[in-house]
């Protein structure tokens, strides 16, 4: 067998294999050919940034929405000092930067929106951080300074969970 016929048989085998793959795996055929598209290697894909229009700490029509649960909980405050946090004091357990409206709570999932009406009226807090394991049914509000956290103290407050 000469080299030309050997190369032809390899190419024929590749075509037959591609056809069988398209038949056996139709989702790959729908998505496109199993052969990668190398036509735009020199071009860079432009990714448009996502524009976020919602404000942090606000619920849409908060007055119309009823809480799914109302409880009373012990609430304390913390600030971003190394003795009150771990080795990354400005990053929450959820991976976000601390901000006004950050709440630490072990008994609620990340992203849960809560309101503390007796303390801050209609202000919405988002659970983005965790507390020490020994504090399960407690909440901790992030404050920008240690003095503000100390001044807050310990309070038993009504918590509306959304």
Short description:
The protein has 162 residues and is α/β, with parallel strands linked by helices.
Word description of this protein:
By secondary structure, the chain is of the alpha/beta class. It folds into two domains: about 1-35; about 70-160, Barwin-like endoglucanases, CATH 2.40.40. It has helices at about 5-25, 25-30, 115-120, 145-150; strands spanning about 70-80, 100-105, 115, 125-130, 140, 155-160. Strands 1-5-2-4-3-6 form a six-stranded mixed beta barrel.
Strand and helix layout:
Layout: H1 3-24, H2 26-31, E1 69-78, E2 102-105, E3 113-115, H3 117-120, E4 124-129, E5 138-142, H4 146-152, E6 155-161
Parallel strand pairs: 1-5, 2-4
Antiparallel strand pairs: 1-6, 2-5, 3-4, 3-6
């Amino acid at each position: 067998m000469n080299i030309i016929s050997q190369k032809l048989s390899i190419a024929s085998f590749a075509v037959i294999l591609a056809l069988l793959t398209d038949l056996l795996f139709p989702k790959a055929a729908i998505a496109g050919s199993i052969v990668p598209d190398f036509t735009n290697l020199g071009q860079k894909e432009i990714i448009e940034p996502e524009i976020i229009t919602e404000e942090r700490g606000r619920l849409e029509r908060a007055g119309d929405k009823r809480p799914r649960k109302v409880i009373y909980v012990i609430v304390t405050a913390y600030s971003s000092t190394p003795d009150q946090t771990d080795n990354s004091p400005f990053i929450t357990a959820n991976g976000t930067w601390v901000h006004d409206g950050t709440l630490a709570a072990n008994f609620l999932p990340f992203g849960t929106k809560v309101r503390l009406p007796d303390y801050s009226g209609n202000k919405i807090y988002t659970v983005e951080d965790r507390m020490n394991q020994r504090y399960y049914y407690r909440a901790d509000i992030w404050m920008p300074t240690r003095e503000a956290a100390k001044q807050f103290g310990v309070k038993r407050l009504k918590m509306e969970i959304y």
